[in-house]
Amino acid sequence: MDRLGFMLILGSALTNAAGSSMMKAGFGRRGDLMDDGALRALFQIVSNPWAIAGVSLFGVSFIFMSAALSRVDLSVAYPMMSAMVYVLVLAVSVFWFGEPMGLSKLLGIGAILFGVVALSVGG
Known about the structure:
Helix 1 packs antiparallel against helix 3 and helix 1 crosses helix 4 (74-95). Helix content is 78%, strand content 0%. It contains five helices and no strands. It starts with a helix and ends with a helix. It is an all-alpha fold. The chain has helices at 3-27, 38-46, 49-69, 74-95, 103-121.
């Protein structure tokens, strides 16, 4: 993988993680979004600026990943992007949203990162 391919994957991961974080910021502290029914939930989603920003960032992530896939094998690019997203989302979850991080989460992230390294160096 060349430097540009890596940078495109990183751009995809950063915007994907930011999009997920925006969704959490918009809805994470409101209780169950579906409590008042699906139609009300849909209205709350489409009228929430955090959700609009999150979906927009997912679109940008898609553009980055599309460009990355023109340069990097799917079997390497997608797991690498996913692992970056897992690490970024875990950091945001702990430091911004105050979610707990136990040993099992750390071990899980370690296993994911090990798998991505194995995929990227393997044939």
